[in-house]
Amino acid sequence: MTDPVLVNVSLIGNKHINRGTPCEDASCTLSRNGVSVVCVSDGAGGSKYTHARFGSKCAVDCIANLLCDHFDAFYFENRESLSRSLLVTAVHSSMADLLVEHQLDGLERLSCTLLFVAVKGDLVLAGHIGDGLICRVSSHGVSPLTLPSNGENASSTYFITFPNAQEYLRFIRTTTDETHAFVLMSDGVEEMVYDSSSQLVRPVVARLAELASKGKEQAEEELAATIKEFVIGAGQNTDDASVGILYLPETDAPDFSSMKDAKAKFQRNHDDTIRAVQMEWIPKVKHAQEILSALSSGKPLPPAGAAPSEDEPEEKKETAATSTENVDKSEEKNEDKKQIPAANEGNAGAPKEQISSEATSKMVPLWAFLLMTGAFLVAVILLILNLI
Prior knowledge:
By secondary structure, this protein is an alpha+beta fold. It is 40% helix and 19% strand. Strands 1-12-9-6-7 form a five-stranded antiparallel beta sheet. A five-stranded antiparallel beta sheet has the order 2-3-4-5-8, with helices on one face. A two-stranded antiparallel sheet has the order 10-11. The radius of gyration is 24 Å and the shape is globular. It starts with a strand and ends in a 5-residue tail after the last helix.
């Protein structure tokens, strides 16, 4: 199997050129231990993000080295939350030296987004926090692998420097099946090639990926010229622009003549939100609390399927919602302070038969109650995440 061709370019936008400020984007490629990695990061704009360009460079270098050295550990770890937490912890730890070097008062000064794709053989790891776009090019065309993630409005986003960044980091394990290339881009390029109203990635992205067939040096030269002319040169206030390409030789390219440059907009139901789902489930969550409480105290169980009374005072309903919010906030604060726990090797091989026989006991043991309570709290956190 021929090794992937890795290409990356980061160019300063006219907005920064006109202001006399440096490029805040960063990108890198790295091949080691049979692993090929491409990373892109967009340093945050704004007066409080004074050293974002150093943060973006640190983030891409950290992740590229981490995945080249420990690809298998992350790919075969089933606890995704643990993998996400470790990736974020690694970046934060690497940035700590920058706080000392530049005498900064916190990680916020280094705020940046992060996108990465790592390939080992047929296996793929991808991650994305913030805006920007990761695309997959195949013989069928080009499609988004991860989408831009903005905050309350299009000008806000999420950063790897957040204390709870692991909650917003999208982490993907997949394979290279039918893949011709992966293309990563910061929002300076994404805004030119992606239509969010139809989820359409324009065919030009596949053509950019095909530049890598010419080899890294020539591809980066032609890619930089293309981005400079058509992206940065599109206006006087254009943003920095970064593109990373992981190209798989000897795979089928798409038929460019059949690729569409337009697509019908999809109709979204704006009333169907996560908050609406959370509010719908609050009575059911409260009923589950009653069952767990009865199990722990030995009291009679409430009727199966029973839900709180519809005529329940609004104050009590509000209290139930508030209590779940407090649980979430408490868990979030504790999670930020925790170090990543080591795997519990002692329990890894516990026989299923033993667990089953213990679970059939008439009295619910303490460990079982704690287990159920933990699972319940996780469910609560997921349900009310957007309420805080």
